[in-house]
Amino acid sequence: xxxxxxxxxxxxxxxxxxxxxxxxxxxxxxxxxxxxxxxxxxxxxxxxxxxxxxxxxxxxxxxxxxxxxxxxxxxxxxxxxxxxxxxxxxxxxxxxxxxxxxxxxxxxxxxxxxxxxxxxxxxxxxxxxxxxxxxxxxxxxxxxxxxxxxxxxxxxxxxxxxxxxxxxxxxxxxxxxxxxxxxxxxxxxxxxxxxxxxxxxxxxxxxxxxxxxxxxxxxxxxxxxxxxxxxxxxxxxxxxxxxxxxxxxxxxxxxxxxxxxxxxxxxxxxxxxxxxxxxxxxxxxxxxxxxxxxxxxxxxxxxxxxxxxxxxxxxxxxxxxxxxxxxxxxxxxxxxxxxxxxxxxxxxxxxxxxxxxxxxxxxxxxxxxxxxxx
Amino acid sequence: xxxxxxxxxxxxxxxxxxxxxxxxxxxxxxxxxxxxxxxxxxxxxxxxxxxxxxxxxxxxxxxxxxxxxxxxxxxxxxxxxxxxxxxxxxxxxxxxxxxxxxxxxxxxxxxxxxxxxxxxxxxxxxxxxxxxxxxxxxxxxxxxxxxxxxxxxxxxxxxxxxxxxxxxxxxxxxxxxxxxxxxxxxxxxxxxxxxxxxxxxxxxxxxxxxxxxxxxxxxxxxxxxxxxxxxxxxxxxxxxxxxxxxxxxxxxxxxxxxxxxxxxxxxxxxxxxxxxxxxxxxxxxxxxxxxxxxxxxxxxxxxxxxxxxxxxxxxxxxxxxxxxxxxxxxxxxxxxxxxxxxxxxxxxxxxxxxxxxxxxxxxxxxxxxxxxxxxxxxxxxxxxxxxxxxxxxxxxx
Lengths: 374, 397
Known about the structure:
The complex is a heterodimer.
Chain A: E1 20-33, E2 36-49, E3 53-57, H1 64-71, E4 80-87, E5 111-112, H2 118-127, E6 129-132, H3 146-156, H4 161-174, H5 179-183, H6 192-203, E7 210-214, H7 222-239, E8 242-247, H8 250-253, E9 259-264, E10 267-273, H9 274-279, H10 284-292, H11 331-335, E11 341-344, E12 347-349, H12 354-360
Parallel strand pairs in A: 3-8, 3-9, 6-7, 7-8
Antiparallel strand pairs in A: 1-2, 1-4, 4-5, 9-10, 10-12, 11-12
Chain B: H1 3-9, H2 14-21, H3 26-29, E1 37-46, H4 51-56, E2 61-71, E3 76-80, H5 87-94, E4 102-107, E5 110-111, H6 112-117, H7 126-132, E6 133-136, H8 140-143, H9 150-161, H10 167-180, H11 186-190, H12 199-212, E7 217-221, H13 229-246, E8 249-254, H14 257-267, E9 270-275, E10 278-283, H15 285-290, H16 295-303, H17 309-316, H18 348-352, E11 358-360, E12 363-365, H19 387-395
Parallel strand pairs in B: 3-8, 3-9, 6-7, 7-8
Antiparallel strand pairs in B: 1-2, 1-4, 4-5, 9-10, 10-12, 11-12
Helix pairs in contact in B: 9-12, 10-12, 12-13, 13-14
């Protein structure tokens, strides 16, 4: 991995480093509702590093899908997206890079995603950043064989069909799919697991740099879910991908991701290296979440739900948005909104009292001792 | 138990309610040794397609195909399996919401469908059976009438089954049950409409509504799956507390082995693993998780991620413990043991004979490997073994 972890003590430094592929600054999404203005993304800063797998974890309604939409400027009306989303193409001034589709990054070494024209955006999506949605296997056209879906996509981007189909063969191999059989099938002839894998291949047909996946395994069987997770790691290694994996399922990403970004109330509560974040989280929400999710072999006596309720997007609490549910919150938390600041090497939390959180909110990942094992 | 808890709450403890309500069937209750619910060789077969297709074709889907289990009072069984394994159908058939194609469901010794079809000979009336077995569904938003207040939603079961209560008593009872399900202050929640409640609160209303019927058994079908991850443990704890208080038995359906383990461990219940319409392994949670004897249970265990990042990273490189990823067509299940085409230990014997549940330590397992002297051990291994088979079948369902 080409990630310089030592230098990135904070997840969101002001000056993006060279190994960053996408960054968001002050990204906000608001909806006008009859009850008032709803903020479904509230000042989100994040750097996505080249060729990493970053998991964006949050509960339902935490804003994680909106974050995915914001990355591609795909927030639907009447949502209003503001802030900066910047994309750093690889080797911008290197003429050797083969252009596959219509997207031309020119000589810029940074691209303002939110400032693109519709045409630019159309080619930016799929060719640079691609997305796989939850239950997206149902988005295939039922009257069209899978081959047609691939052809349509390739032609819409003026790419060379034969060359792309060769690439699809490689992708299918990595995803353990039978090229001839799947391509000549109608969607209803294929199982959910095959369709979802074919869709992942389709999203990679134009060799995007970044793949954003929103709960890509949620509607699948456990075994298929786990198998796709393993395949994603192979895909990343083989095709030099950057993967943004959005999920509500914290245990799912422990083995997959390099970094985890935890969302709470439409912003990032904690961002950091997967191992550090899971082993010794520093934000009270992350710690409480880890304590509330029963895992297959963890000690059950420590399990506690998080008291209270998630905030209403129209009425986000002042100060730290977690303070009404936080056991260590004090007056400062009610007034002042903490920024995401570095706690450890490669771990940042938006909390004033990370040390206190570690002391006062215990959780354990340790596996229980089995009497029968002794 | 928890008599003190409930007695402290109010002068009418739930136990008293039970006693008052069930005077009619005291005679039957007296029979000792009769399990609360007994399911025997239960089969639910469907004919797929529309009316004409169903009439013309002889295709059947065996959603549940020969399941036996018993449930005692204050017992809990958690049905675990992948989507399409028949766990919901089994649950529905067990509480009388689905008429089985074959086999029997007995409530306190009374065949429930016999009670419905021959009411004259029935010891326990069908209506009483329906009251004693309640359901909580997965999505509470669809289980509550959105145009009625919580108060009137909860008054319905009382109006139907507790006709002796006056309006004031009914209101008191509603408030008391709202308190049981942690909705404080009850007067406030009683006046709300479902859309004014969060997902967790709605699910607690459906739990309260089920408990108002004073049931002996509650079928909870993925009752926590629709809730926020951080609230699931809270809902499970509430169910466990109320189980202790009301001595209700539960059939809990879950696709998540981690949650199943939590419930089963705290309640002292059993986990039953289902595969293609059958229970393939049943036993206490520790044994199911740490010492599974059916190969399919191993697959479920492998598929459930561990949260510890060090262990999880190691596990990422492990190959799946199956020869074939996809579930076979339930319309045409494989011969012999239904799991043999995917099973990593399958041998020739597995293709010929269909295993029943055998004792395997503390568990019961439908696998010949539980029998030390079975011909399985002398039988040749299946020829399509090995990695190539996995590769090929990865794509080929």
